[in-house]
Design goal:
By secondary structure, the protein is of the alpha/beta class. It is built from 20 helices and eight strands. Adenosine-5'-triphosphate (ATP) binds next to helix 6 and helix 13. It is found in: Cytoplasm.
């Protein structure tokens, strides 16, 4: 089961995909990528229920509070009648079973606490929100994460000393959250009485808002300032939240003064963070900043072999290479591909082979093999903005035509291997500097204008199939 797809395939699959596409258009890109895109859903074959699997407890609560009704409404609009929604925590066996029995609902009740949540650790009322399955032992090491892993291990072994704060950044699904939990779990294994808290930045924002409304800042401070280790995920979410940034700054200073450790993650390095106060950005960068890169081929192979072993199945090395060569973006997608292969093998009672992987992953492979041509981009963009395809090559300059043309040039550069002169040629013999200008202009505006960004997102999704 991959992100955004349905377990059993068929009509449910298309319905869920349509729902995801719709939400991609409606929500700001960052929100969509963080909360909706990683969701894994299973729609029963009789459409009597949709079960959405979420990676951890916080995410589950967040999806329930912020997005569940929106997802239900979108599905209802698309399907024509309401489909009850259930939220469940991702548990490998549950997902695998859901896969193998597409007619049955997932055997996980929506609000159950996962058995893996290591919330007690002798700290009765204190909830650390750690997932005990995410440890250093289950994190595969490779060139891509070697430095981040080494720094994290150091912090877990001697917190409050070097590398404080530890700032880990990288793209989606590369193991930042996993690494953070590993630090917390390791510290608790060594010192069960340590006060550790894992929290997503959005939850911190929401705690600040609650403390503000209820005038409970003393409790808030007591909670955060007394920690030995604060693990805070996705701090880019602090953007534009002044009060939150102020409270985080206070917590940060208090924790560092008492030599507690802070580990943070983000999708970018500190100076790349937008709309976060300079004094905070410079604090973020004052310890150690390390990147996690997308995993290289050998690491992807090792991850596949290890994860399938953990599921009780041996994946032959040649199959792991085949899958790893075809799934390159991130570990979460790799896990999705692996689950598909394992479920396909169980369901069809076939040995895992390259042929089986090819069948199990055929959707994914066909998307990759589908070449996006400049002609296709021109046609799609012209359709979208309701202009003639011929205007893509014409010399006309009114903005209603020039802008879609620039957008098409931008997409041609982004989505094909063509050079600037080649693209210029295909747009009615234009100079390569004209293409470069369009690429820079649209690329720059995309960062600023949410509406343009959403339009581009829709066009990209359409072109990628
Ligand atoms: N090196 C690794 N070895 C084993 N599993 C990994 C590794 N890296 C990532 N994973 C797994 O991949 C999945 C995605 O990782 P994780 O959630 O930590 O990513 P992330 O970088 O925090 O992404 P996001 O920013 O989208 O939250 C998790 O199931 C995690 O356990």
């Amino acid at each position: 089961m991959t992100e955004g797809t349905h377990a059993a395939g068929g009509a449910g699959d298309s319905l869920w995909q349509a729902c995801i596409d719709q939400l991609a258009q409606e929500l700001p890109e960052q929100q969509f990528n963080t909360w909706i895109k990683p969701l894994v859903a299973q729609i029963n074959e009789d459409f009597s229920k949709v079960t959405i699997f979420v990676a951890n407890r916080f995410k589950l609560d967040w999806i329930r509070a912020q997005y569940a009704s929106r997802i239900t409404a979108t599905l209802e609009k698309l399907y024509g009648q309401a489909i009850p929604l259930e939220l469940a925590l991702t548990q490998r066996e549950a997902v695998a079973r859901a896969y193998a029995t597409p007619n049955q609902s997932a055997p996980v009740s929506p609000a159950t606490e996962p058995t893996s949540l290591a919330e007690d650790n002798g700290q009765a009322a204190f909830k650390n929100r750690l997932n005990s399955a995410l440890t250093f032992e289950t994190l595969i090491e490779g060139t891509a994460n070697r430095m981040a892993r080494a720094a994290a291990m150091h912090v877990a072994g001697t917190p409050g000393q070097l590398y404080n704060p530890l700032f880990i950044y990288g793209g989606v699904g590369l193991g930042k959250t996993h690494l953070m939990h590993a630090v917390g779990n390791r510290l608790l294994a060594d010192r069960p009485d340590a006060k550790v808290l894992y929290i997503h930045a959005e939850q911190f924002v929401s705690d600040v808002v609650k403390a503000y409304q209820r005038k409970t800042f003393d409790e808030f401070k007591e909670r955060y300032h007394s920690l030995d280790l604060l693990l805070i995920d996705d701090v880019q979410f602090f953007a534009n939240k002044d009060r939150t940034q102020e409270e985080f700054f206070n917590a940060f200073e208090a924790l560092l003064t008492k030599k507690s450790h802070i580990v943070m993650t983000s999708d970018t390095y500190p100076k790349g963070l937008a709309d976060i106060h300079e004094r905070l950005v410079s604090r973020f960068d004052s310890g150690l900043t390390v990147a996690i890169e997308p995993p290289e081929l050998e690491m992807r192979v090792a991850i596949l072999i290890n994860k399938s072993r953990a599921e009780g199945t041996e994946m032959p090395e040649e199959v792991a290479f085949f899958v790893a060569k075809n799934v390159r973006s991130n570990v979460r997608e790799l896990e999705g591909a692996l689950r598909k292969c394992l479920a396909y093998s169980r369901f069809n009672q076939k040995e895992i082979s390259i042929q089986l992987a090819r069948e199990a992953l055929r959707d994914l492979l066909s998307i990759q093999n589908r070449q996006i041509s400049v002609e296709n981009i021109q046609k799609t963009v012209a359709d979208y903005y309701k202009i003639k395809v011929a205007d893509m090559y014409s010399k006309k300059r009114p903005a209603s035509i020039a802008r879609p043309r620039q957008i098409a040039m931008y997409l041609a550069k982004e989505l094909t291997q063509k050079s600037l002169p080649e693209i210029g040629e295909l747009f009615g013999g234009r100079d390569h500097t004209t293409v470069l200008h369009a690429v820079r202009k649209i690329g720059g505006e995309r960062q600023q204008l949410t509406e343009l960004n959403q339009q581009l997102h829709v066009l990209e999704q359409t072109l990628k199939g």
